[in-house]
Specification:
Belongs to the Brp/Blh beta-carotene diooxygenase family. The chain is mainly α and 348 residues long. 76% of the residues lie in helices and 0% in strands. The chain has helices at 12-38, 45-54, 67-74, 81-104, 106-131, 141-156, 158-162, 164-175, 187-190, 192-216, 222-240, 243-264, 268-275, 279-307, 315-343. Helix 13 (268-275) packs across helix 14 (279-307). The N and C termini lie close together (9 Å). Bound molecules: retinal and fe (ii) ion. The site of fe (ii) ion has 7 residues, from helix 5 and helix 12.
Length: 348
């Protein structure tokens, strides 16, 4: 079944290149961060903020900067001005509408951002599991939906369970750009009872998901082991690494890197490069294509800064403005990626 899933039939050479150039780096970076923090390391806020700041130029923001090319390409067409314009319009309408929500109801906008990211990062990992790790055990829609909920919950829910104060600080940094004392209605979410209940439900979900995958796995257990190993590794990672740092690194080396490889597999030229093991050449080509709109997004960041009613003066506040921009760009981006999922038969 997995041959029909990713929309491109990956040769063994391509899969090797992706494993060594994409999967392994993500695993290694994650382990490299888990170890010191398990041993009790602590780092100052500005250091924790570095990966998220870097994501504005490398991997993070660029991963969405070719959405105008991705949509025609996933349908096997060359990008035309019309198709690119349609994606531009989608960004304009969705981004602006969501911007208005941030203005008038920042807490709703923040909650929406968490749920949107939960779905989006889950859907990104689902594609990677099917296409790169060939997890054939994810055969039913139910299992794929569970994969999205489980994978997306790792970055979005585990930090709430393990670092509620950080979570609240970041939530406050975002919402208070628009309204003071905005989080008062959310105190229940950070309470220990709430977190215990959420943690128990989520733990059961992970157990059920992995058990179902195990039962459905054929004789080759490697793909399931990759899924289970990644899931448990990320659960520990988000439970011990301070969330700003953990999310900044995850955004770059898991979500964005995996999505970028998905993108370079679409046009013939870069797909052939990946197939023959020249991953870096394909990534170089991507970097060129992603540069103009990455720069445009950075210009929008400047614009958003001017529009924010309560301008911050600290590192967290600066990151908060960047995260609100990401939120506004993510809504149309998710629409594009969901369309890609449809075209590439990710849901069967
Ligand atoms: C930074 C941070 C948080 C939120 C990060 C989010 C929501 C990032 C979304 C990024 C996206 C959508 C990127 C595009 O693909 C939490 C969870 C509140 C915990 C504290 C640290
Ligand atoms: Fe994305």
């Amino acid at each position: 079944m997995s041959e029909s899933v990713p929309g491109v039939d990956l040769t063994a050479g391509a899969r090797d290149a992706i494993a060594s150039g994409v999967l392994w780096p993500g695993w290694l970076v994650t382990v490299a961060l888990v170890v010191p923090f398990l041993l009790g390391a602590s780092v100052p806020l500005w250091v924790q903020a570095v990966p998220l700041a870097v994501s504005a130029l490398v991997l993070g923001l660029p991963h969405g900067a070719v959405d105008h090319l991705a949509l025609p390409r996933v349908r096997g067409r060359r990008p035309t001005w019309r198709a690119m314009g349609a994606v531009g319009l989608l960004y304009l309408v969705c981004g602006l509408a969501y911007g208005v929500v941030w203005y008038v109801a920042p807490v709703v906008a923040f909650a929406g951002f968490i749920l949107l990211t939960w779905f989006h990062w889950g859907q990104g990992d689902l594609y990677a599991l099917l296409a790169f790790a060939r997890v054939e055990a994810l055969e039913s829609r139910l299992q794929r939906a569970l994969a999205v909920v489980v994978r997306g919950g790792l970055p979005m829910l585990v930090p709430l369970l393990a670092f509620p104060d950080w979570y609240r600080r970041v939530a406050l940094a975002l919402t208070s750009l628009f309204e003071a004392d905005s989080l008062a209605g959310l105190t229940w979410l950070f309470r220990v009872e709430t977190r215990l209940a959420l943690g128990a439900a989520y733990g059961l979900l992970i157990a059920g998901y992995l058990a179902l995958g195990y039962v459905r796995t054929g004789s080759d257990r490697t793909p399931w082991l990759i899924d289970a190993g990644e899931t448990l590794l990320l659960a520990v990672y988000f439970a011990v690494v301070p969330p700003l740092l953990a999310i900044g690194v995850y955004f770059c080396v898991w979500h964005s890197l995996r999505h970028i490889v998905r993108l370079v597999l679409l046009p013939r030229r870069t797909r052939d490069a990946v197939r023959t093991g020249r991953l870096w050449s394909a990534l170089g080509r991507f970097a060129v294509e992603a540069t103009p709109l990455t720069l445009a997004a950075l210009a929008l960041l400047g614009g958003l800064w001017l529009f924010v009613p309560r301008r911050p003066g600290d590192v967290l506040g600066l990151l908060a403005v960047y995260l609100v921009l990401i939120a506004m760009l993510t809504l149309p981006h998710v629409a594009v990626v969901t369309w890609m999922d449809r075209e590439q038969a990710v849901w069967g």
